[in-house]
Amino acid sequence: MAKIAPPQPVRGTQDMLGETADRFAHVVDRFDAVRRLFGFQRVEVPVIEPTAVFARSLGETTDVVSKEMYSFDDRNGDSITLRPEFTAGIARAYLSNGWQQFAPIKLATHGPLFRYERPQKGRYRQFHQLDAELLGSDSPLSDVELLCFADHLLRDLGIADGVTLQLNTLGDSASRDAWRAALVEHFASHRAALSEDSRARLDKNPLRILDSKEAADRPIADAAPDIDQFLTTEAQDFFAAVTAGLDAAGVRWQRNSRLVRGLDYYRHTAFEFVTDRLGAQGTVLGGGRYDGLIENLGGPPTPAVGWAAGIERLAMLLDAPPPSQLDVTIALEDDALRTDALALLRRLRDAGYNAECIASGSPRKRFDKAAKSGALVLLSLATRDGTKQLNARHDGGERAVAIEAVARTAQ
Ligand code: ATP
Ligand code: MG
């Protein structure tokens, strides 16, 4: 047969093994523990959704919908999209299943997402997020709860020190509309000096010019009016309640009046946890209140707030995880004792000890191989002078002694 080249991975996807996979798993494990601590229920939603779920809720003008979605026609001609984010799918599920009856409801999930982006460090086409949503509550305490969850997770992961919570308010719709009009006026008067992308945003999504990374846009964006002078009393009170809640809960934050979220449905609270340790890909966790989304999807007006965090970016910030300690390695020095080895493995694992058995290669070399595994306890199963022998070697510590006792219980 002609030799063929092995297939290449799709650009912007990653395979993970060893430390990379360990870091990833650690982030997911801790997320699951902390979401229980905060009483967020686990939810599962599909990877594929009707394209309209994202187009309607994210807004046609966002980067995600206009250029980053993986969409394809299903065999019957329906347009399907691989989810580029969780929120819209969870909002769709909330409506499809009548989860309003449980409102307010605290939900958490994690998994893969897909965006057609230019791949680079910390930016992939298949990436993974942790996601938390609180649906059906218009209380600023819900925003505080979500932010406490995020802050707790970052502290639990040991990365809170290099990460800052940047906070802004986008006001209610009245504040936001007034601010938007002032921004359009400001940016229109500098139209010629704006970058090409921002000139396009001016007509479609002027708020996005504020957080443009283009050098040409920065002075114009920095000189743009803040939202503060446009905030209604209600919107001011809401923001004050959120910041007071964070202060009371001991969550440090910084006001960033240039922070706008990329998606059109955000209201009131908008936030990002940002680090300078990841170069240009500095946002590790972002979110906010999206009171307009469920209505955009055709549901009743429903207040909600949520966040998402890139697992790969969190994993990169972790200190190297300690190598996992193996409890027991068994050297099977006589193949005739294979069934004893299997029974022994089962007994050790039932007792909660992680155990491996070296049973391949030359039997005389298995003991040396097992000794190199670095396990707390080294067991050998051998036949000497016609009798079965179980020998143990360890440092005599408490855990090791307990393991040996389990190994020696009635065989
Ligand atoms: P960015 O400004 O970096 O493009 P974004 O505003 O598109 O981020 P969100 O849609 O808010 O990001 O997603 C939340 C988090 O998901 C980000 O803060 C980041 O950690 C992660 N993330 C987003 N896009 C990618 C990607 N292509 N690869 C890896 N992680 C990503
Ligand atoms: Mg993006």
Distance between the termini: 52 Å
Quote the average pLDDT: 92
CATH topology of the largest domain: BirA Bifunctional Protein, domain 2
Q: Give the bound compounds.
A: adenosine-5'-triphosphate, magnesium ion
DSSP helix fraction? 25-40%
* Major β-sheet profile: 8 strands, mixed
Could you state the CATH homologous superfamily of the largest domain? Answer: Bira Bifunctional Protein, Domain 2
Radius of gyration, taken over Cα atoms and rounded to an integer in Å: 27 Å
Number of strands: 15
Estimate nothing, just give the exact number of structural domains. 2
Residue fraction in strands: 15-25%
CATH architecture of the largest domain: 2-Layer Sandwich
Shape: elongated
Total helical elements: 14
Structural class: alpha/beta
Spatial sequence of strands, sheet with the most strands:
1-5-6-11-10-9-7-8
Are there runs of 5+ residues with pLDDT below 50, and where?
none
What is the CATH first-level class name of the largest domain?
Answer: Alpha Beta
Write the H/E string, N to C.
HEEHHEEHEEHEHHHHEEEHEHEHEHEEH
